């Protein structure tokens, strides 16, 4: 079993705020999902897309799965991805996140190799950033327990695991404006992001 061979991309949400399916976001004429998978396939051997629409990915070279425990939000997607993952640790990202930071991924891998936690997640004030983070197969049981008792909050579940929290100040060295944790929830946010990024995006 590899330590860091896998990445999980969550694409099984309701997209209610966006008003159309966020796994179909187009940014400057390009599919955001294609951009994410292109970048992550350079870093990970195995990409696992956890989706609520298998048809979209009929011809995809990646591993395409659905939630096993449905309707539980991101934690349900993380659970399905970890169960399918062939690695000890899996990088978890979301289909609506437009900025990937490979340097930050490398730093997390180095920290995990030294500290050997069950998860590695950035903390921001009293919040955590559940994506752009690493989770491990060793958490599956705890996640199942949490989901089984009706719990959906990722942070509550992480508190019960041996989680290494990356402090804000450290994460900001890689992403001063916090862009690497940004996700697009509404059409307005989408329009603003397109306006803000340069022509080469
Ligand atoms: N596999 C899976 N992914 C999910 C689920 N819920 C949310 N996600 C993903 O998690 C990320 C963040 O989702 P949110 O924006 O919090 O929720 P959403 O349901 O997509 O959007 P809203 O309906 O506007 O809240 C997105 O990539 C979603 O596709 C779920 O139940 N299963």
Automatic annotation (TrEMBL):
Residues 7-155 form the MobA-like NTP transferase domain. Its EC number is 2.7.7.77. GO terms for cellular component: cytoplasm. It catalyses: Mo-molybdopterin + GTP + H(+) = Mo-molybdopterin guanine dinucleotide + diphosphate. InterPro entries: MobA-like_NTP_Trfase, Molybde_CF_guanTrfase, Nucleotide-diphossugar_trans. Belongs to the MobA family. Mg(2+) binds at residue 96. Transfers a GMP moiety from GTP to Mo-molybdopterin (Mo-MPT) cofactor (Moco or molybdenum cofactor) to form Mo-molybdopterin guanine dinucleotide (Mo-MGD) cofactor. It is found in: Cytoplasm. Its cofactor is Mg(2+). One of its GO terms (biological process) is Mo-molybdopterin cofactor biosynthetic process. Pfam families: NTP_transf_3. HAMAP family: MobA. It comes from the Bacteria. The N-terminal domain determines nucleotide recognition and specific binding, while the C-terminal domain determines the specific binding to the target protein. It comes from Alkalibacter saccharofermentans DSM 14828. GO terms for molecular function: GTP binding; metal ion binding; molybdenum cofactor guanylyltransferase activity. GTP binds at residues 10-12, 22, 67, 96. This is Probable molybdenum cofactor guanylyltransferase. Keywords: Cytoplasm, GTP-binding, Magnesium, Metal-binding, Molybdenum cofactor biosynthesis, Nucleotide-binding, Transferase.
């Amino acid at each position: 079993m590899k330590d860091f061979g896998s990445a999980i991309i969550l694409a099984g949400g309701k997209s209610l705020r966006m008003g159309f399916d966020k796994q179909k976001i187009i940014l400057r004429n390009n599919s955001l999902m294609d951009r994410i998978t292109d970048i992550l396939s350079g870093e990970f051997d195995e990409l696992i897309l956890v989706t609520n629409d298998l048809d979209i990915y009929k011809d995809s070279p990646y591993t395409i799965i659905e939630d096993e425990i449905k309707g539980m939000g991101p934690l349900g997607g993380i659970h399905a991805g970890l169960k399918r993952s062939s690695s000890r640790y899996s990088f978890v990202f979301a289909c609506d996140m437009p900025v990937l930071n490979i340097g930050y991924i490398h730093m997390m891998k180095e920290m995990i190799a030294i500290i050997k936690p069950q998860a590695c997640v950035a903390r921001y004030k009293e919040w955590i950033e559940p994506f752009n983070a690493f989770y491990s197969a060793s958490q599956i049981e705890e996640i199942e327990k949490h989901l089984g008792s009706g719990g959906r909050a990722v942070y509550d579940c992480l508190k019960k695991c041996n989680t290494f929290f990356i402090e804000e100040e450290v994460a900001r060295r890689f992403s001063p404006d916090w862009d690497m944790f940004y996700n697009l929830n509404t059409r307005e946010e989408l329009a603003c992001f397109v306006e803000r990024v340069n022509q080469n995006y």
